[in-house]
């Protein structure tokens, strides 16, 4: 990267501070410093948002119908189908940890998006073949069809593993954090990214699901494959406008070096003045420097300069910079936040499983000639999220900026907390509605629109919590780990789905006394007590929200040096006493 910045326009940009050129270590398609007017910003982000729209269209066209397909076509019992859906969702949302690591360290984000989309597309094509080929249809050969079906959807999982973390971080890379206008645009980028995401969800759970129900599952798969192929072509058409990041090897290596260096120097005393810790000169690098914090002080020993016989002892595994130490602190500080958001992931898993199953046994008639497909009930959650994101971006955020004086309005962690609170209320409402359905003289005659409040509340909660999680795990990780950061965000949903499966198993074992009696999960909803399960999730959510508030209030946001000032993600621009001192090294 340094070599790419050594001369030409790059030198003019650094020396003269010319805003025509982007100075955030990104490059254009010719590996030169990007021209601001010709690359990045919304002109590039729109290509990227479009392929996200098509990916979500495909994913939710599959995910929301999966429970229905497993129970109706493959004839699985409800609890086993729910477990299979949760396991698939877990793999799909945990694979981005692998994809993000490869994108950040080795393949680059653009290449990762390209390769993973091809894998994704192959899964959709195989899915269409398994549905359309007469010899592979379930009524002809159920075992073979089931095998190909699961291979196809897990190919989609693998494709999603590279697509999701690389694409979202690649889109955010199009905005320069060091440029005031583009930094504000990036905050809106995450909001509108999720609006496009929800638009894809909305079409996926209405148009695609309708095709699957009324025309055929194979026809729906063909449409999904065609849309994904077309969006890939559009994504490739924007390659000249993108800003690229050159991979620099494993993003985890610098973190391990800090831990090793701190362990080697564990017997040394920390200096009273943090300005005595080692840091490079800002003019010698193109990456952002971080200010020192007082959290996890034992790691500061990695930045203590050792003197042996009057000479300094250096080496990558013996001496780290303050910025590297602070990046390690950021990653370690994310662990309790990640743990505290897992119950939110468990709650979110119910929307694509039990919520939709509820809709399938209720009255879905909309007039004399149209019946709403069960999976289309998910559209109500997508509408709730679109409304929440749009209202927050266009109305609430402006008001909150004036109220708090910060660039964001609500801080990232407060936004997540608000979303978690909404999902707790959604579980309580879902429990009340399910209890009413069970007590009804004719449960099947109860209108599916009774589910609207719980779907809308979950959508609104996602509009706060999911967007907040995306921003948090993209922005608060080290700059070299941003795809992996998106993978961490997705792992909240994946781990939550996995924990949901384990919770269902545990609750079923306890309430059925090991199978000796009827438990909360019967063969169908009418013989189950899903209302009690929802109340259990609400109680877990309340207890966890208290834990989350404690963890969030103790969290220190990333503070970035910028000419004697830093940008603090919690409150905007604040004074940084360490910045000037560190710049003097």
Report low-confidence residues grouped into runs of 5 or more: 1-16, 563-585
Structural class: mainly alpha
Number of strands: 5
> End-to-end distance, in Å?
22 Å
Give the strand order of the largest sheet, numbering strands 1, 2, ... along the chain: 3-4-5
Q: Sheet bearing the most strands, described?
A: 3 strands, antiparallel
- Globally, the shape reads globular
CATH superfamily of the domain at 20-248: MFS general substrate transporter like domains
Domain Major facilitator superfamily (MFS) profile: 44-556
Organism: Oryza glumipatula
Pfam families: PTR2 (PF00854)
Transmembrane segments: 113-132, 192-211, 217-239, 330-355, 375-392, 412-431, 451-474, 486-504, 532-551
Written description of the protein model:
This protein is mostly helical. Among the domains are: 20-248, Growth Hormone, Chain: A; 251-326, no CATH class. Helix content is 63%, strand content 3%. The protein has helices at residues 9-16, 41-72, 78-107, 109-132, 142-172, 180-215, 217-237, 253-264, 322-340, 342-349, 351-360, 379-404, 412-439, 452-475, 482-511, 530-553, 577-583; strands at residues 306-308, 311-313, 559-562, 565-568, 572-575. A 3-stranded antiparallel sheet has the order 3-4-5, covered by helices on one side. Strands 1-2 form a two-stranded antiparallel sheet. A hairpin with a 3-residue loop joins strand 4 and strand 5. Helix 13 (412-439) packs antiparallel against helix 16 (530-553). The chain is globular, with a radius of gyration of 25 Å. Mean pLDDT is 83; it is low at 1-16 and 563-585.
């Amino acid at each position: 990267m340094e070599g790419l910045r050594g001369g030409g326009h790059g030198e003019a940009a650094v020396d003269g501070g010319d805003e025509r050129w982007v100075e955030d270590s990104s490059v254009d398609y010719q590996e030169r410093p990007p021209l601001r007017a010709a690359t990045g910003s919304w002109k590039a982000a729109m290509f990227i948002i479009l392929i996200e729209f098509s990916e979500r269209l495909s994913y939710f066209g599959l995910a929301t119908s999966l429970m229905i397909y497993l129970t109706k076509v493959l004839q699985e019992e409800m609890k086993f189908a729910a477990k299979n859906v949760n396991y698939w969702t877990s793999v799909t949302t945990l694979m981005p940890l692998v994809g993000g690591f490869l994108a950040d360290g080795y393949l680059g984000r653009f290449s990762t998006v390209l390769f993973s989309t091809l894998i994704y597309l192959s899964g959709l094509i195989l899915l269409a073949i398994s549905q359309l080929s007469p010899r592979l249809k379930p009524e002809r050969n159920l075992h073979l069809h089931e095998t190909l079906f699961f291979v196809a959807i897990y190919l989609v999982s693998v494709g999603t593993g590279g697509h999701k973390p690389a694409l979202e971080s690649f889109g955010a890379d199009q905005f320069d954090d060091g440029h005031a206008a583009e930094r504000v645009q990036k905050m809106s980028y995450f909001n509108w990214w999720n609006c496009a995401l929800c638009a894809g969800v909305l079409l996926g759970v209405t148009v695609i699901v309708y095709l699957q129900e009324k025309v055929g599952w194979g026809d729906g798969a063909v449409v999904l494959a065609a849309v994904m192929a077309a969006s890939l072509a559009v994504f490739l058409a924007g390659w000249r406008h993108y800003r690229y990041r050159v991979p620099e090897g494993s993003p985890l290596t610098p973190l391990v070096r800090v831990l090793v260096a701190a362990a080697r120097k564990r017997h040394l005393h920390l200096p009273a003045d943090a300005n005595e810790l080692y840091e490079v000169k800002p003019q010698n690098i193109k990456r952002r420097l971080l200010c020192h914090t007082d959290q996890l002080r034992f790691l500061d020993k990695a930045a203590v300069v050792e003197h042996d016989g009057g000479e300094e002892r250096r080496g990558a595994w013996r001496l780290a910079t303050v910025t590297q130490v602070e990046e390690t602190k950021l990653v370690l500080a994310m662990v309790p936040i990640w743990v505290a958001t897992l119950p939110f992931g468990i709650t979110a898993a119910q929307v694509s499983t039990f919520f939709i199953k509820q809709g399938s046994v209720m009255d879905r008639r909309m007039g004399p000639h149209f019946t709403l497909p069960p999976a289309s009930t998910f559209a109500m959650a997508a509408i709730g999220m679109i409304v929440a994101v749009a209202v927050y971006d266009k109305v609430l955020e402006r008001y909150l900026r004036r109220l708090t004086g910060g660039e964001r309005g609500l801080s990232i962690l407060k936004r997540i907390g608000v979303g978690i609170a909404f999902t707790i209320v959604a579980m309580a409402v879902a429990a009340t509605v399910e209890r009413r359905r069970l007590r009804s003289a004719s449960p099947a005659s109860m209108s599916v629109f009774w589910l609207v409040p719980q779907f809308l509340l979950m959508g609104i909660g996602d509009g706060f919590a999911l967007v907040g999680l995306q921003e948090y795990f993209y922005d608060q990780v080290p700059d070299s780990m941003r795809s992996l950061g998106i993978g961490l965000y997705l792992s909240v949903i994946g781990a939550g789905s996995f924990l949901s499966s384990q919770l269902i198993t545990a609750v079923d074992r306890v309430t059925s006394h090991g199978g000796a009696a009827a438990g909360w999960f019967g063969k169908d909803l009418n013989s189950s007590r899903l209302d009690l399960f929802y109340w259990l999730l609400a109680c877990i959510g309340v207890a966890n929200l208290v834990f989350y508030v404690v963890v969030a209030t103790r969290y220190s946001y990333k503070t970035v040096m910028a000419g004697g000032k830093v940008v603090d993600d919690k409150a905007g621009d604040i004074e940084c006493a360490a910045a000037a001192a560190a710049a003097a090294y």
